[in-house]
C-alpha cells in the first residue's frame, strides 16, 4: 500500500522531469568529396605514412552545436543544428580521407601510429561555423606539420569562406560548412603532398 501511495504521489511530477535536451530532427556530419578507392591496399615504407593528430579547438567548438558569430564578440548557436560528434574529430577524419585520396599515401589516425608515424599533421581548428555579419560559412585551420625524422615544424593557416544562400538554419549550416571544410582539406592535402 505504501509503494502505491508513493507511486501516485510521484505521477504529477513525471511530466516535469527531463533527462536531457530534446534531440534535433537530424544530426549533421561531413562528407568528403575526395574519392577513396574501395579495396585498394596501400603500403607505407619507413617514414612515408601521414599521421593526422588530434586537433585542438577554442571552447566555442568543444561542443556538437554549430556556432554563429553574430558580432565580433558574440557567439550564438544555430537552432536545431547539431553535429554527430565534435567538429575537430569530424574535420580530422575529413583531412585524413582527403590526404589519402589526393596524395596516395597511407594516412593513420592518432591512435594508429604506434611505431612509425611518418609525417605528423596537427594544429588548431580556429573557426568552424557561420558568420552572420558576412553571411558566410567559415573554416579556419592553423596547421602544423613535422615531416619524417626532421625536427623542424612548419606552420600555415588555411581558410575557406562559402556564401550562405537563404536563411541560417541547420540544413544551410551543414551544406555550407561541408563545402568550406572540403576546400580547406584539399588545400592542406596539396601542402602535405608537396613535402
Protein architecture, described:
- The structure is a single chain.
- This protein is an alpha/beta fold and about 200 residues long.
- It has one domain (about 45-195): 3-Layer(aba) Sandwich (Rossmann fold).
- The protein contains three helices and seven strands; from the N terminus they run αβββαββββα.
- It has helices spanning about 1-15, 85-105, 170-195; strands spanning about 50, 65-70, 75-80, 105-110, 120-130, 135-145, 155-165.
- Strands 1, 2, 3, 4, 5, 6 and 7 form a seven-stranded mixed sheet that branches.
- α2 packs across α3 (about 170-195).
- The relative contact order is 0.20.
- The model is unreliable at about 5-20 (pLDDT under 50).
- It comes from Sphingomonas lenta.
- This is ABC transporter.
Question: Helix and strand layout, with pairings?
Answer:
Elements: H1 2-14, E1 50-52, E2 65-71, E3 74-82, H2 87-103, E4 107-109, E5 119-131, E6 136-146, E7 154-163, H3 170-193
Parallel strand pairs: 1-4, 1-5, 2-5
Antiparallel strand pairs: 2-3, 5-6, 6-7
Helix pairs in contact: 2-3
InterPro entries: ABC_trans_aux (IPR005586)
Pfam families: ABC_trans_aux
Keywords: Signal
Give short descriptive properties of this protein:
single chain, disordered N terminus, alpha/beta, 195 residues, 3 helices, Rossmann fold, 7-stranded mixed β-sheet, elongated, 29% strand
Amino acid at each position: 500500500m505504501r509503494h502505491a501511495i508513493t507511486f501516485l504521489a510521484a505521477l504529477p511530477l513525471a511530466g516535469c522531469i527531463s533527462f536531457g535536451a530534446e534531440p534535433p530532427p537530424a544530426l549533421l556530419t561531413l562528407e568528403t568529396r575526395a574519392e577513396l578507392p574501395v579495396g585498394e591496399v596501400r603500403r607505407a615504407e619507413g617514414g612515408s605514412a601521414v599521421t593526422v593528430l588530434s586537433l585542438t579547438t577554442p571552447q566555442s567548438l568543444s561542443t556538437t552545436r554549430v556556432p554563429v558569430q553574430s558580432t565580433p564578440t558574440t557567439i550564438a548557436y544555430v537552432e536545431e543544428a547539431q553535429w554527430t560528434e565534435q567538429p575537430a574529430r569530424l574535420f580530422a577524419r575529413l583531412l585524413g580521407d582527403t590526404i589519402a585520396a589526393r596524395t596516395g599515401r597511407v594516412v593513420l589516425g592518432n591512435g594508429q601510429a604506434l611505431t612509425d608515424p611518418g609525417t605528423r599533421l596537427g594544429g588548431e581548428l580556429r573557426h568552424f561555423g557561420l558568420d552572420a555579419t558576412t553571411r558566410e560559412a567559415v573554416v579556419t585551420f592553423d596547421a602544423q606539420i613535422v615531416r619524417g625524422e626532421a625536427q623542424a615544424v612548419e606552420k600555415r593557416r588555411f581558410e575557406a569562406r562559402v556564401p550562405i544562400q537563404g536563411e541560417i538554419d541547420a540544413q544551410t549550416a551543414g551544406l555550407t560548412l561541408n563545402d568550406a571544410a572540403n576546400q580547406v582539406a584539399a588545400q592542406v592535402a596539396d601542402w602535405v603532398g608537396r613535402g
